[in-house]
Amino acid sequence: MAHDELDLQLLQALQLDGRASFGRIAAVLGVSDQTVARRYQKLRTSLRLRVLGIVDETRLGRPSWVVRLHCAPDGAARLADALARRDDTVYVALLNGGTEVTCGIKPRDRQARDDLLLQRLQRTPRVSAVSAHSIIHSFFGGPFHWLSKLDALTGDQQDQLRRPVPDRAGELTLDATDEAIVAALRQDGRTSLRELQDVTRQTGETVRRRLNRLRSAGVLFFDVQYDAEPLGHGTDVMLWITTAPTALTTVGRALAGHPEVWFAAATTGVSNIIVSIRCRDSAHLFTYLSERLGRLDGILQIETAPILRQVKQRELTP
Known about the structure:
Keywords: DNA-binding, Transcription, Transcription regulation. It comes from Kineosporia corallincola. Pfam families: AsnC_trans_reg (PF01037), HTH_24 (PF13412), HTH_AsnC-type (PF13404). Residues 1-63, 174-234 form the HTH asnC-type domain. The protein is α+β, with helices and mostly antiparallel strands. The chain has helices at residues 5-16, 22-29, 33-46, 73-84, 110-120, 155-161, 176-187, 193-200, 204-216, 248-256, 282-292; strands at residues 50-55, 65-71, 89-95, 100-105, 127-140, 220-225, 235-243, 261-267, 273-279, 299-313. It has a domain at 232-310: Lrp/AsnC effector binding domain/regulation of amino acid metabolism (RAM) domain (Alpha-Beta Plaits). The strands form 2 sheets. An 8-stranded antiparallel β-barrel has the order 2-4-3-10-7-9-8-5. The protein has a two-stranded antiparallel sheet with strand order 1-6. Helix 2 (22-29) crosses helix 3. The longest helix has 14 residues, at 33-46.
């Protein structure tokens, strides 16, 4: 199914505000409400489009980790599926010919972290090695999505849809009502206020106030997830980059500006930057590695790991 500029504009509009009404989006794009509704339904079918509510766990005092698990080929897929069913995993992928599973985790507390990293994964059959890396700084990702690099919308259109920058002063604590709202939006970020009222058993005004508070504090943002291959981007790769310590910030900031990069963060471990990139094909990947990355001073080593299958896809926020 062919996709045109209006489809890309709708994707970018939803990334700027995942709960924007079709009417508001239509007014910005200069089309009718019905056109936006039809295109939205088309993308849900053709690209498996989903808008999901994502919690920035660091605003709740919960650090993020990336875990690499090397395992026997006959055990990798089952392990990936099992990890995807866990509430504390935010993404799970099969890499390197099906012999590696990489996942992002956000444990609720130290005990949950230790139970997973020091006990469960270490004892998992068919796993030969486990390495865990703490994310210590974000360069690109989370609320800053790859769709923003499409430039399908004009600057003025983006300004009309973009929400105010969140106030990130201090950490927050969620109560039962907040948790119920977040749980519903994790499944469908466009869940209506009426449905959120039913879930929380609160008034519409209470739900609206809680939702605005979560968004304004930067605890909750909305992510657009879809199949990129039909749009011409069929090669996803993870890069583990080692830089000189003095070049860490410079390289990270340069990576954030690359059109191919949809996630980049500084991590602990031998490799100090983890990057996820999206390319059209292997030729595009070769050009990116040899020319764009090859021109950055301070890079000492690059390990590439093609993503065979994205088992679970949610944004990992440092």
